[in-house]
Amino acid sequence: MPFEVRDITKDRKYLDELVALGHSATPVTLIDDEPVVGFDVSRLEALLADSE
User: Quick check: 18 and 28 in contact, CB under 8 A?
Assistant: First the structure.
């Protein structure tokens, strides 16, 4: 599964994107445009299973 790391501490545009999505906490993982805030293993697994 390809992914892209976006470090908000190294590039301000990534922080701006996060805020535009309505989030102020990290990590935020987007899977098929569906945000997962925090490290929610069951939600990540479910979304990944649906995206295959």
Answer: yes
Please name every residue paired with 35 in a beta bridge, in sequence order, or none if there are none.
Answer: 30
Asked whether the whole model's pTM tops 0.85, one would answer no
Looking at residue 31, what is its pLDDT? 95
Amino acid at 24: S
Name the E strands within 1-52: 28-31, 34-37
Of 7, 9, 36, nearest in space to 21 by CA: 36
Residue (of 3, 42, 44, 37) closest to 23 by Cα position: 37
List pLDDT tens digits, range 32-44. 999 999 999 999 9
Coil, strand, or helix at residue 46? helix
